[in-house]
Amino acid sequence: MFDWNRWLFSRLAAGHGTDAPLIPAARWMAEHGATIGILMLLVLWWLRPTQRAGVCGVGLLAALAAAVAHALADAIAMPRPFVTGDSAPWIAHGGRGAFPSAHATVMFAAALGLWQLRGMGAAALAMAALGLATAWARVHGGLHYPMDILGGAGVAAVLVYGLRFMAVWLGQRWAAPRGRLARRLLLRRWRASTAGWPLRRPS
């Protein structure tokens, strides 16, 4: 049976080749891609004051994606290419599970999260390009198979759009007649509990 995963890996990775001129660039990108992504979010937070809440939400989404990816990788325990012997260990790394790629999950989750924000299309595409470059670097250096990258992208999509679906569903439930009744009851209780509050502290 055709193993597309290992075939594509053999085309993208340095493998055991003695002549691997792209390894320095791959090593740098593999180690610093996530840091560049964080800096991108910080710059967006600074430059887009009206979107700061959304950018913070994307940051929290990325943190959640990292936790989910690490939990799945530990549970699945898929070996890395340098562990299976398909590549030399060009980039120093532990032998923990490789599927899904945590870097791919986090960076594609951030890209999809930015895509949901108004006026952030260019930033989302830039984050996706950074995620692809980092994914290539980690495949080229023998840390991941292409399937690990696709798995990370899939987990990111399920996470982002699953949370969006839940938010829309909860919003609709809150806007339904029962939701409006619950809001009125909460507002009434809050007004009753704060009716006697002084506007100023007594001197």
Written description of the protein model:
The structure is a single chain. The chain is mostly helical and 203 residues long. The protein has a domain of 140 residues. The longest helix is centred in the C-terminal third of the chain and has 30 residues. The protein is elongated, with a radius of gyration of 23 Å. The N and C termini lie far apart (84 Å). The mean pLDDT is 86.
* Separation, N- and C-terminal Cα atoms: 84 Å
Q: What is the 3D form?
A: elongated
Biggest sheet statistics: none
**Helix tally?**
8
Note the run of SSEs as H and E: HHHHHHHH
Give the percentage of residues in beta strands. Answer: under 5%
The share of residues in helices is over 70%
Averaged pLDDT: 86
Which class best fits the helix and strand makeup?
mainly alpha
Q: Report the radius of gyration as a whole number of Å.
A: 23 Å
Low-confidence stretches: none
Number of strands: 0
Per-chain topology:
Layout: H1 4-12, H2 23-47, H3 52-76, H4 81-84, H5 102-115, H6 121-140, H7 146-175, H8 177-194
